[in-house]
Amino acid sequence: MGLSDLVYGVYERRLHAQLAGAADSGRTPKHVGVILDGNRRWASAQGSTSSVGHAAGAAKIVDFLGWCDDANVEVVTLWLLSTDNLARPHAELEALLGIIEETVQGLVGQGRWRLHPVGALDLLPDRTARVLKEAEEATANIDGSLVNVAVGYGGRREVVDAVRSLLQEHASQGTTLDELAQVVDVEHIAEHLYTKGQPDPDLVIRTSGEQRLSGFLMWQSAHSEFYFCEAFWPDFRKVDFLRALRAFAERQRRFGA
């Protein structure tokens, strides 16, 4: 073990000690959303291809979910591919989708988490959509935390899909638009989001130093706390996660007040 490993080990134990009190007082997040950003830039810095970066980022996911389990996080949302990403060059996109499919199947094989696809599956290739649906079915009865796998996800698209679903539901019941306009409220929309029935994210983490949400969980994150980390996703360490939890515990949440 090198000196740096020893130092980080000591620091990690210190962070754990600081977070012990936060857990006892309920100041730990139950739902954590993560924008896994920086894979391509990490690869470029290594002199490698984007596929190498995406593979390195995928390899980090199991470790991260394990850290979330240790912290008693009940719901995790991982943004793996946005709707904007679907416009990437065909070769790059095809390779990325292959990595995502392998990653999802690997998570199924772990047998530790319930997987739930989040996104516009109709925009994805049939194989990718099938892998995501089969993953949800295969893990439905697992007694573990819930992991939302956001693939083909865009915040604006989610809201549009929610409104469309709401309109279709009420149309099938014979409700007129005028009648719906009189009663529709925030909860009606929330009941048709991809994450319906789930708690909103308490904490949203974005790696790579970028300080924007890019539409991630746009509706659900209205009262979330945000943590921006300089590390590229493949370099994200447990101490970085613990720092995010510490920052969350230190904040006074006002929920818009």
In short:
This protein has helices at 3-24, 39-46, 50-70, 90-110, 126-139, 155-172, 177-183, 186-190, 238-250, and strands at residues 31-35, 75-82, 114-118, 146-153, 203-206, 225-228. With 257 residues, the chain is α/β, with parallel strands linked by helices. The longest helix has 22 residues, at 3-24.
Total beta-strand segments = 6
Strand order of the largest sheet: 3-4-2-1-5-6
**Could you estimate the helical fraction of the residues in percent?**
40-55%
Shape: globular
In sequence order, what are the helices and strands, one letter per element? HEHHEHEHEHHHEEH
CATH superfamily of the domain at 28-155 and 201-249: Decaprenyl diphosphate synthase-like
The CATH topology of the domain at 28-155 and 201-249 turns out to be Undecaprenyl pyrophosphate synthetase
CATH architecture title of the domain at 28-155 and 201-249: 3-Layer(aba) Sandwich
Q: Low-confidence segments, ≥5 residues, pLDDT <50? A: none
Sketch the major β-sheet: 6 strands, parallel
* Total DSSP helices: 9
Explain what this protein looks like in three dimensions.
There is one protein chain. The chain has nine helices and six strands. By secondary structure, it is α/β, with parallel strands linked by helices. It has a domain of 177 residues: 3-Layer(aba) Sandwich (Undecaprenyl pyrophosphate synthetase), CATH 3.40.1180. It has a six-stranded parallel β-sheet, sandwiched between helices. Helix 1 packs parallel to helix 9 and helix 3 runs parallel beside helix 4. The longest helix is centred in the first third of the chain and has 22 residues. The model has no long low-confidence stretch (mean pLDDT 93).
